[in-house]
Amino acid sequence: MAGSEAGKGNGGFRIILLGDSTVGKSSLLRCYTEGSFIPAPCPTVGVEFYSKMMDLPPGIKVKLQLWDTAGQERFRCITRSFYRNAVGVLLVFDMTNRKSFEHITEWYHEVASIQLMEKVVFLLIGHKSDLKSDCKVSTEEAEGLAASLGMGFIETSAKNNTNVDLAFQTLTNTIYEALKNKEIDLQEGWDGVKVIHKKNCNPQKKKRKTQEKCLC
Amino acid sequence: MASEGGRKQFWKRSGSKVPGSIQHVYGAQHPPFDPLLHGTLMKPGSKPPTTPVKLKKVSTFQEFESNTSDAWDLGDDDDELFAMAAENLNTDVVMETANKVIQNHSKLQEQHKLQEEQLQEDQSVQSADLPSVTYGDKRLVKSVSESHTSSSADGVSEYSSMQRSQSLPHAPTAPVEREMADHNTSPTSALTEREASRLDKFKQLLAGPNTNLDELRKLSWSGIPKQVRPITWKLLSGYLPANVDRREGTLQRKRKEYFAFIEQYYDSRNDESHQDTYRQIHIDIPRMNTEALRLQPKVTEIFERILFIWAIRHPASGYVQGINDLVTPFFVIFVCEYIAEEEVENFDVSSLPEEVLQNIEADSYWCMSKLLDGIQDNYTFAQPGIQKKVKMLEELVSRIDEQVHRHLDRHEVKYLQFAFRWMNNLLMREVPLRCTIRLWDTYQSEPEGFSHFHLYVCAAFLVRWRKEILEERDFQELLIFLQNLPTMHWGNEDISVLLAEAYRLKFAFADAPNHYKK
């Protein structure tokens, strides 16, 4: 029973998308998981969940748990509780929105304040690359920032479905490599990575007590 | 299974208390005695229907009936109401309304004559006493009451249950009616006698000179006819005074006040201190799903002003995504004051006179403000109101349906992951707009409807999907299901059942904190 979650694959990675409001996090996820594009989806409230299986080259299946987050500041208290259990983070900015790019460092430190950096793999995403003429951030500049923060950079467009799969593949591969090289430390009680052999103990039972009947 | 047993036992105990609770119900038609629910209450122990316990229940129910019969009896209590109204009302007005109703009735009766003849004989008595329902609802009604009366032995209770099913405003809604995506009642041409009578009661209450707000709440609990919904919402929200003579003045004053705010604040939207707020509102509105309401530029501008002014005047929370959704029901309903509801879809709002639009805007602003006053801690820093309510929801569900709770827990689904949005957007993202509007009829009739009662609605809503939830076998499936609940075709009847269940939960738990404590 405990293995049912990982039963279909060889493990699972929890990935979270962060970035300002309307940079296109939900569209990126919808494009990746459903192959669809809706021009102006409702703002994400709190967190939203998506999932997708991914094949890694050596014949390994990984289930990706993808968490979309609300970009608005007020929701940060809620979304923050999701950082801790993520092994991968896509930091997303809108290439036509300078501010969203400037805020990337803030988002990075936001994660850093909650999570030990050696556990997380980041990837910087410059989204809405289809709107080239409106671009307010150059590729070089974004690459520069990515390098300074020690992560890769990919330009994507959900509208044209450009590089969307590539972005998720790149992140997943990097996580997988880091795991193989033991660069990511698997700790008890941390859910960023689910591995089968870790899933055979289920601590649920001790939480349950026989229910006392109410006395009112 | 063990937990199932525990649950039944639990409900059996509180079930015995239910009849005595009825006096507290807002709205005589309140559905704690929904046959569906009643069935649940009766089930535990599967006692034969004629046991003394049952009879006692029936008599308690009769008490309930007699206490609350005013909402559905077309006979005696109408006289009473007329007598009451006559004290305050111009007799001409009363007679005029009464004549309208009578006309309506006779028209309907003619319409149904043919149908009536085809109906089974055993219903002939009933059709003489009770209003007939259009679209062959009768058959539905009958089946509902049959399912109930199968467990009751005597004719009296059969009659009561019959009345009750009839009195449930929306339970017996035919597909045709439902497809019309009606809000509360079918078009005027198809008004049932019961609906006409309800509408009449609303009109009498609203006519003044002083609207009895308690009575209005009772009546509104089970749904407000669309014809009187705009004014009823304004009264229930506390925007309009109960005194008829003061209403016009209040409206003028409040509308002026709102436009003075605009004068004062709206130019500051591009100032450094406010531009983030304005920008967020500005980019969120085009992304809203307002269903029937077309987000034409005129509407967008109105929404922007309403939200910006509210945010500026409430710095403790400011604008938080989700608040934008709360404007829509008010706006749509207040637009309906000026056009037929069926026209809202693709209606060109800018074709309304400027003054009318301004009134709609100001009224929407004030009613939304009143609503938000009750739930502001949902949107202040760290959103304590939501965090608290999600916790309470978890606690509550663990008590009312341990199996579901345990299932979620076992698959590591956290309530915050799905219920955050339920609280932040008051379920507006989970049900169609027409259902939200119906839900708000009741929320505005309940004390602390949007804050406290909403919690029970959420609990009832979650448990409503217990079968599907228990069928899902892993985290991803569960969460994706909970994020995309299949409510697209929901109508009033679904909301009525949900509200009845919520009421039952509230009654069982609200004043019994020990129910919460494990």
UniProtKB/TrEMBL annotation, chain A:
One of its GO terms (molecular function) is GTPase activity. Gene3D superfamilies: P-loop containing nucleotide triphosphate hydrolases. Keywords: GTP-binding, Lipoprotein, Nucleotide-binding. It comes from the Eukaryota. InterPro entries: P-loop_NTPase, Rab_GTPases_membrane_traffic, Small_GTP-bd, Small_GTPase. Belongs to the small GTPase superfamily. Rab family. This is RAB42, member RAS oncogene family. The lineage of its organism: Eukaryota, Metazoa, Chordata, Craniata, Vertebrata.
Automatic annotation (TrEMBL), chain B:
Residues 1-31, 107-194 are annotated as: Disordered. Gene3D superfamilies: putative rabgap domain of human tbc1 domain family member 14 like domains, Ypt/Rab-GAP domain of gyp1p, domain 3. GO terms for molecular function: 14-3-3 protein binding; GTPase activator activity. Keywords: GTPase activation, Phosphoprotein. Residues 158-168 have a biased composition (Polar residues). The keyword Phosphoprotein applies. May act as a GTPase-activating protein for Rab family protein(s). PROSITE patterns: TBC_RABGAP (PS50086). This is TBC1 domain family member 22A. Residues 223-447 form the Rab-GAP TBC domain. Residues 107-116 have a biased composition (Basic and acidic residues). SMART domains: TBC. InterPro entries: Rab-GAP-TBC_dom (IPR000195), Rab-GAP_TBC_sf (IPR035969). Residues 143-152 have a biased composition (Low complexity).
